[in-house]
Amino acid sequence: TAADENTYVRDVTSYWNNRPRCSVYQGTTATTCTTSGTAYLMNWDTENYDSDSMHSTSSNTSRIVFTTAGLYSIKVSVFFAANATGIRTVDVRMNAAGASGGGTQVFQPRAAATATSSGYVGGSREYWFNAGDYIECFATQTSGGSLATVLGSPFTFVDVLWQAR
Fold first, then answer.
1. CA neighbor of 159 nearest in space, from 42, 59, 20, 27
2. pLDDT at 126 over 70
3. Strand partners, 121
4. Residue 131 · residue 44 · CB < 8 Å
5. pTM here?
6. Distance, CA of 46 to CA of 165 (rounded, Å)
7. Per the count of CB atoms within 10 A, which of 34, 100, 119, 120 is most buried?
8. Average pLDDT over the chain, rounded to whole?
9. How far apart are CA 141 and CA 61, in angstroms?
């Protein structure tokens, strides 16, 4: 029947094509890691898109909140200013409440420093979230001085995409 087609074909296809997703980046304010070896909370001031009210650009801008439970794909990319000393780390944590050691670690990509170009740290993974869980990212660098992240959607961002229930 038409009702069955709507319920079992149209609605499912519409949901899959418009599944929960969010893409945020540092567009105007970089994270400046002023003290070497200290983790700094990263704020996301600009959105590429947000289909499920997962991020706010006015409050708790460090958080991506999962309003729909499920398995999500998470992609993180952080570029640091060029500097040949130390390592760069991004710690992705769930429900950390702004504390670098709080909540649960989801994953932690790291990379060696590079002097010839901006230092890239990034990675991806899938992780299960309940409705109301959120992630935050913490940037750390060990250059011995102050080092900032690089602004812009192609460089310093987080993308999340719902994969399954």
1. 20
2. yes
3. 78
4. no
5. 0.91
6. 28
7. 119
8. 92
9. 22
